Amino acid sequence: MSPHSSALLPPAFMPSDYGPALRTHVATLPSMTSVGVRELFPAMPAAVTEGDPGDLDRVRAETRAALADVDMGKIGVGDSVNILASEHGFGLMGGLPYAEMVKTIREVVVERTGCRDVRLRLAIYRGFKEADEVREHFGFDEAFDGKVKGLGPFDRGVEVDTAIGPMWLVQRAFDADHFIHAYYDDPREMYFNRLLYKSFKSFCMSYARFETRSVYHSLFGNRSGSIIPRALFDSDFVQSKYTFSSVLRTSPAGVIGIDATDDLYAIDRRITASHLATYGRMQRLFAEIGDCVAVWDGGRWGYYLHAGGVIFGVLLTNHHDSFDLDVPVVAGFMQVPGAAVNFSRNKALRGIVVNQAWVGAGIPYVTMPFTSPMYIVGDEQADLWRQDPTNPLLMDRATTVDTVEAGIEMALARGRTDKVMVFDGSYGHITCNEPMAALLRARAPEVDRVVAHELLPKWLAQRGL
Amino acid sequence: MAVIRFVAELDAGPCTGCKLCDLVCPSGAITMVDRIAVIDDPACIGCGRCVDRCPEDIMWMTERAEPIVRTVSPDEVDQGEVAALLLKAGIDANVSVCVCTLTPASEIAAAVVKGARNLDEVSAMTGMRSGCGIYCVAPAMRLLEAGGRDVSTAKGHRWYPCTLALWDVSDEARARYPDAFIDQDRAAFDPDGVFAPMEHLTKMAARPSEAELARRAGAFSTSTRKEAGA
Question: Taking CB atoms and an 8 Å cutoff, what residues of chain B touch A127?
């Protein structure tokens, strides 16, 4: 709890060269409060952790329990094994729960198989120094006896023949006899992946060259893109090295457990059913917000910062029900002819205040300040944005402010709203001001009913579940 | 169109000649001369990837005295050729291929028509890839391939040939993944049914007859969608 407000503090996050110097969290402002996810939706399952470092023993125990029945017979004593971890996992609740699962997988594999050559491969997005930051912050060199390497979309590739044609993965991800898919189930861009085989997405993103990522994003639609990661996963090359998957399971309440088996399709069905019920409620609750200002206040790219387990991008694109598969495209590169723009905006978003966030996402913030006024706190941070080649137009329109309080005040006045939601990496609760809290509490019961009785049956049926 | 405000510079003294900057440069602006990186200032599109990649930390970005503009304007090339290229590639003219610079497919196609031979040259001409450098690549390579360029060769691993699109998925693959919304998305994104598999990808899907392709070309030119440069 903050000493000056009634809000809970978000998880601590990793400092990075890709973001500004750490600032005081918005949750410490007197005007802020917290709304519990399970206060809004009491049926939401209780969490193992919301990211508190004191809970890591529970994550470790959950991982060991989940791995107990996993067949590791493919891994011989003299073999080599890559544990493939992906960078967004280190943005979940400060990253400690995911890191703990990854470390525990290694321990169990060594214990069970006698194999000593267990390496960690850290798949990052596009910052070449990001993997070094992650390995140092989470102590991976110690945990893996120094057998840690980063990999990214610009690294040397390996051609993979799939049922839909040849595509390219990153060679370093598969430079061992076997690999383990160490994943997390954050639905993240649910407006893009539509919760269609999301558990496979790493095979066309984290573990893939930029050409494959581009095919997935740019030459297929939201729905049809789901064929790409599955075709890669099912390929002879990937299957020849695949052993099992271990997935950090979440709900908006926090980490709810670990799911591990060699049957990734089974894991995906379980995750999809759970997410439609839990994240589906949050997505629809966000759609009830008619006007608001969003604040970015975390240690990742703003688009991917969480509030109540849901990323900012969901609020930005919440003009459609992301889970309704009758809608061809919610946000994406391919368009229905006549559609206005690739990434249209939720008109409820009246302004964005950037207290702290990474630059360089390459995700189209470009046009955001044209339609939603943006306020960047501090000259140092404004300079980072000014030099960000992935958002070349942003600072032509954004306003630099001295303090986050000033930014919020200006955004509320200009946006003619009184509601603030803070994307600070929180699970289990939403950091917001009192008017927003009142709205969420008032609308949640009806959202709960509509999802349970109308939307969830449709979403499940559309996915054959 | 991209407005380029920054340029990469380096302290050549400590350069080890590792070539990592060269490998990630999207516009071919870096060459190795006597095992030292040399930056061609006008060709640099300011993405900063070399600075981030350099293991010696001897590169940096400097603001240009005057921004430079990279673009291929519609009046530089025959718009009929641009439209034909887009049709062959199965890409809508108005899609923002590069969402960092908001460069539309029509401009990428215009660069190919103007003579771009490879991904580097498309990037240098349009400023595409000056942002994230990732998501715009496949459409650009598909347009290059549709224009008859050989996309299979690149220096090092600068790029690999990967131009698969929704239109190329074979009947066998559709049958294997029946819940992948292939038919539904084709209908949504191409309601006139004018796009076809690329010729080189015939191993993935049966290519329509020439007569059928001619019919589709006619439908494309008379469809309601905006054509390149319109």
Answer: 52
3-state helix, strand, coil in chain B (%, to 5): 40, 15, 45
How many residues are listed for chain B in this entry?
Answer: 230
Whether A459 has a pLDDT exceeding 80, the answer reads yes
Q: How far is B187 from chain A (nearest CA, A)?
A: 9
pLDDT at A362: 65
A125, A232, A359, B174, B189 from B181: Cα distances, Å: 28, 17, 34, 9, 12
* ipTM of this complex prediction, to 2 decimal places: 0.94
d(CA B12, CA A29): 48
Q: 107-136 in B: which are within 8 Å (CB) of A?
A: 130-136
Residues of B in contact with A196 (CB under 8 A): 181
Distance CA B61, CA B46 (A): 8
pLDDT tens across A192-234, in order? 999 999 999 999 999 999 999 999 999 999 999 999 999 999 9
- Taking contacts as CB-CB distances below 8 angstroms, the residues of chain A near B141 are 211
Identify the CA nearest to B86 among candidates B198, B204, B201, B215.
Answer: B198
Can you tell me the distance from the alpha carbon of A451 to that of A119, in angstroms, rounded to the nearest whole number? Answer: 43
Please give the Cα distance from B6 to B40 (Å, whole number): 13
pLDDT for position B229 = 35
Residues A112 and A328: their CA atoms lie apart, in Å, by 46
